[in-house]
Specification:
This protein is mainly β. Helices cover 4% and strands 47% of the residues. The protein contains one helix and 27 strands. The protein has a four-stranded antiparallel beta sheet with strand order 3-2-1-27. The protein is globular and about 45 Å long.
């Protein structure tokens, strides 16, 4: 760590020490109880500002505390989970010659991050990163580049580009689907394939996970003009749920075979035509599904999930602050933290255990342009 970073961390720690959160009664809490979690928040920020912050959060009373942060990464808009060797990966969402993946070493004792390695994505605007420590690889979804980059990632912080998969095609939307826009990537339920959501061509690109070859023959085709963005999987592995950015739908897919998927239902998340649906997550028990919507009537659409069929029923909508790009549910299912970019805050919602509806606690975690929340402990 250089002298500039040391000074920054010291001043930030003094600023936030002991006064980083307030509970519903107005008393300060430090978020370090036995049930405390640790999360990292990514943002849109310039390289000379603290783009990634570390906080603790209490699953008991929603108390939180700022712990540290790191500067030096421009627009760290998406972060991976904590991997083996205490490594977190971050994108640097830039242009054609200014887009990178960074490996960051996390110290549990001091709750700090340090630069460990980085490499160019060779694909513009990487907006998603996934790491697989067991296979020693990491992946970035490069939105503007229309590509997927594969990196070797050895768990010690070394990261080196192996392959770039470039895609072709376009969709029906006149201004948003002029070319491929890879927005996220996941393993298929049987882990033999990579499923990459391509917002620009209305399909999930299916890539072999052993040698990263792509033929297009196995692609999962979604409705025209839908724009698949993110997805999540039911704990039983039999269903996948895709949020489409442009049509604002949740597409439910049967994935019981593990390798392939069949659409069995489409339900509306965005009912006002905002064309900005963003993130999607299941509750830890799989009973409820949440999807965030932006640009118009910003908020979270709430669905009940059938335990028998995996199909969903919309049960409500919870307004949030502006631009809820990303959100995270606590492991016990009691709270949802929503990264509201244009509010410069991470908003905290409690969850009704019977209905699954989020309830605004009124608590806000100050953060400049937050767009990603990841639990790391």
């Amino acid at each position: 760590m250089n002298k500039t970073n040391q000074i920054f961390f010291l001043s930030a720690s003094l600023l936030f020490m002991g006064c980083s959160s307030v509970n519903n009664k107005g008393k300060e809490t430090d978020g370090t109880k036995q049930d405390s979690l640790v999360f990292v928040a990514g943002s849109y920020s310039p390289q000379n500002e603290e783009g990634i912050k570390i906080f603790t959060f209490s699953q008991d009373d929603a108390g939180y505390a700022y712990k540290s942060g790191i500067i030096g990464i421009p627009n760290p808009s998406f972060l991976s989970e904590l991997t083996a060797g205490n490594i977190i990966y971050s994108v640097a969402e830039g242009g054609d010659g200014d887009s990178y993946i960074y490996a960051l070493k996390y110290s549990p004792d001091s709750m700090t991050l340090a630069m460990a390695g980085h490499d160019s994505t060779l694909g513009s605007a990487p907006c998603f990163v996934m790491a697989d420590a067991k296979r020693g690889v990491a992946f970035t979804a490069n939105y503007s580049g229309g590509s997927l980059t594969v990196f070797g990632a050895d768990g010690s912080g070394n990261v080196a580009r192996r392959k770039v998969l470039n895609f072709r095609g376009r969709g029906a939307h006149p201004s948003r689907q002029e070319k491929p826009h890879i927005h996220s990537v996941y393993y298929s339920p049987d882990s033999t394939r990579l499923w990459a959501c391509d917002l620009g061509t209305d399909r999930i690109r299916v890539i072999r996970a052993d040698d990263y070859t792509y033929t297009g023959e196995e692609d999962i085709v979604l409705p025209e003009g839908s724009g698949p963005r993110h997805m999540c999987f039911h704990p039983d592995g039999k269903r996948a749920y895709v949020i489409t950015e442009l049509s604002g739908d949740v597409v439910v897919m049967d994935t019981e075979g593990g390798r392939t998927a069949e659409i069995i239902q489409t339900a509306k998340a965005d009912t006002v035509g905002g064309e900005g649906s963003a993130d999607i997550h299941l509750s830890p028990d799989g009973r409820f599904l949440y999807a965030s919507c932006r640009l118009k009537a910003d908020g979270l659409a709430v669905f009940r999930v059938s335990a028998e069929t995996g199909r969903i029923e919309r049960t409500g909508y919870c307004p949030t602050g502006k631009h809820p790009r990303n959100f995270a549910i606590t492991p016990n299912g009691r709270y949802i933290l929503v990264a509201c970019r244009d509010e410069n805050a991470i908003e905290i919602y409690s969850v009704d255990k019977d209905t699954g509806m989020p309830v605004d606690t009124g608590k806000r975690i100050p953060a400049k342009a937050p767009v990603c929340v990841r639990w790391i402990k």
